[in-house]
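Exercise 7. Given the encoded structure of a 306-residue chain, write a plausible sequence.
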């Protein structure tokens, strides 16, 4: 399928995805002071959260819908295409949103490129404000190489056209160890694809695994014209694959997430911001509750800072 040349505004698409459900949170004290908070919808990306080995299974993910609603989240992101509509229905029954569905795009020659289910799922996402998260990967090419770019762009334009017909946005998700592991990689591919419904995601944990924090503001400025999603988490940085240190409950760890939120506010980023809780062990409600409290605190601090 060839991508149509007709263009339309990605800004309008993203605003449509979040209009009417922007979520503002604040503590009692902040409410009294005028409900100071960032305007970004705050969601959870929580596959692998908790102690249950089946935490990523559909049943466990469905159980999160009422929990997230009670704790004040705007919704969640989901890994994989199977079960996505069940998750969406469960979330919407609790006035939540399915912010994103996460799936691979493989650039290797001879590979089909992406799960055929994606073509069937995208039309069903119409009107729900769900973004298709694509992790660009390869078994042949090294991370951050460019040999697979031509194939990647062909596939991305194919998906972008399918998504455009249903008013759905696509966002490229940088992931350590994958073909597109750096922000520079996803921005390069988004620019080459040249479709207004193809944007990029900033993921704090993967950024810290492949880049230096001193480059944070430069990278965000570079990505800003294409930025449609953000993920954050508590962290002490990436060290030898130490997951417990790398991905923590929001508000924990040595890295000041407020620095990132201030940079996003400076760039007037108003899209969704979500926590990654992958691999965090413990009670799911407690983990999500502590992360929400940290978000309220950070959101209020950054929103009121001059």
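Solution.
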């Amino acid at each position: 399928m060839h991508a149509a040349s007709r263009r339309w505004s990605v800004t309008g698409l993203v605003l449509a995805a979040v209009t009417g459900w922007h979520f503002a949170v604040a503590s009692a004290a902040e409410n009294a002071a005028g409900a100071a908070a960032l305007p970004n919808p705050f969601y959870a990306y929580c596959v692998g959260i908790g102690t249950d080995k089946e935490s990523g299974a559909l049943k466990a993910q469905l159980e999160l819908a009422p929990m997230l609603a009670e704790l004040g989240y705007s919704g969640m992101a989901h890994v994989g295409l199977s079960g996505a509509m069940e998750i969406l229905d469960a979330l919407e029954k609790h006035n939540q949103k399915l912010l994103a569905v996460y799936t691979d795009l493989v650039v290797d020659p001879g590979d089909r490129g992406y799960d055929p289910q994606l073509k069937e799922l995208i039309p069903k996402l119409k009107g729900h404000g769900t973004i298709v998260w694509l992790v660009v990967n390869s078994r042949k090419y090294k991370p951050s190489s460019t040999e697979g770019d031509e194939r990647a762009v062909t596939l991305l334009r194919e998906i972008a056209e399918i998504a455009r017909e249903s008013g759905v946005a696509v966002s490229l998700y940088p992931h350590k160890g994958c073909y597109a592991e750096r922000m520079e990689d996803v921005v390069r591919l988004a620019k080459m694809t040249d479709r207004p419904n193809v944007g990029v995601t900033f993921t704090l944990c993967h950024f810290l695994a492949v880049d230096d924090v001193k480059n944070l503001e430069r990278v965000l400025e570079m990505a800003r014209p294409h930025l449609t999603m953000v993920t954050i988490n508590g962290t002490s940085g990436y060290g030898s694959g130490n997951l417990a240190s790398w991905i923590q409950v929001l508000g924990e760890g040595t890295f000041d997430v407020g620095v990132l939120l201030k940079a996003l506010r400076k760039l007037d980023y108003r899209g969704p911001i979500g926590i990654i809780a992958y691999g965090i062990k413990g009670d799911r409600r407690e983990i999500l509750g502590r992360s929400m409290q940290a978000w309220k605190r950070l959101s209020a601090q950054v929103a009121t800072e001059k």
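Remark. The two ends are 49 Å apart (CA to CA). Students should compare their own answers with the one above.
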